[in-house]
Design goal:
By secondary structure, this protein is mostly helical. The chain has 18 helices and 13 strands. A three-stranded antiparallel β-sheet has the order 5-6-7, covered by helices on one side. Helix 2 crosses helix 5, helix 4 crosses helix 5 and helix 8 packs antiparallel against helix 9.
Length: about 500
Amino acid sequence: MSLLVKKYQQLQDVVADIAATSAADVDDVQVAELVRVNERVVRALSFQGLKRLQEVNDRGLFRKAGHSTLHRFVMSELRVTRGDASSRLKALDAAGELLSMQGQPLPPKCPAAAQALADGAIGLAHMDVMLKVRDRIPHKSAPEVYDVVDAWMTDNARTSTPTELEVCGREVLARVDPDGSLTDDTDRKRNRGLSDGPQGLDMMAKITGNLDPQTLALFRTVMDVWAAPGMNNPDDPNSPVGAIDDPTMDPAVIEAAAQRDTRSRAQRQHDAFKAILKTILEYKLLGTSHRGLPVQVIITMTKQQLDEAAGIAHTASGVDVPVKDALELAARSDTSLAVFANHSADVLYFARAKRTAQQGQRLALFAKDRGCTSPGCRNPASWAEIHHTTAWAEGGKTDIDVLAPACPPHHAMIGPGEDQWQTVMLTDGPDAGRVAWIPPKYIDPDQHPRINRAHHTDHTIEAAWQHIIAERQQALDERRERMQRQLQSTEEPMVTGDDGVRKPGPSD
């Protein structure tokens, strides 16, 4: 056993000892200091965690574990969010000792911050703020500016909260480029971006981004006419749809709708954006096909959900949608494919006649698998390629029951040989009809087949729900039986004695 492994085992033992030790004999001053010590240790350990991730990256272990990138490894193996994984890798890039092309260790990009993090004086939240400021430094700045910013902000971070550090960041950027003369198109192009976040518990997602001047001008011009009061209001059945300056619009109708409109500007812009996206899809401005699927919102739901108009449906782009909203979107679709237990209205079996999966097959696979079938992958069907579980070169057929979606990074991992992932279609058991991924021996010596259930949490939740209900019902039935037996055992026959007093008689 290596020395480092022994050290980590000792660390686990120390943490267990701390957890088992009472704080009853610790005074108030010591309790407050212990909180600070605990935070410093946690921060210092987070730096050591970055060093471990660096070793995973240098050895290519994330690929051997079946992950296409280190980012995916962090998310899956450490069970953290996408944002948390990104923060750790950005901190690793800034504070870690990366390797040169010749394999030589390089000094950290932010040496002062790296030392403070190793000491436990700052945390990853401080690093997030400092790296955001670093990204905003104009590219025309002198190289020493980065070192000065690193040292100055680290000094402030040692005594400031991350929120307070943001104020320091604004001050340092103002000093670096006081008149904005260093900022140019290169910086604006570097900082541009638009991202949609994950869905929350209310199934809504937050959009964040930075628009360059041209995009901002276009956005505001479009919003002026599509997000005007009264326009594109989903809560008003008489609200005009489209742009307020459309000559076909009746000014009186627009004015009346505007008088009824109680939405905020942000809500009007949201509704206008939604109306624009619908218009783009309806007029087929995006073409007719993407990865073999029609360019429209593709939805899957069960017949029960359709009949009850309730529940959660799923789209090919990986979005959960309330069924009532899904039905409205489905009404705008041009093509539908009905797949039943043993019959389909489309041709789903081509054998060797066609090598690539056809649109009907892709729709059917989306309805069945919903996205990439690699274990743990959440990439949606709209990102996926279609994989032959028996390779085409080895005589595989383009039949619906031997095809499976796989996103490009995971699709590329499948191949012949013991060092590649293999796939097999299960034909019996509860997972019949699903593709199982078999890892290489260096990942799993027993090569246990793995199934991706990430796209089917509703199924697993329903199964767990039914199991819990069954267990509770069984426990209730057993309790009733016990009470019934106890009641019967205490009900002894009563007889009347010569003195007229009722007494327990002999039991039968």
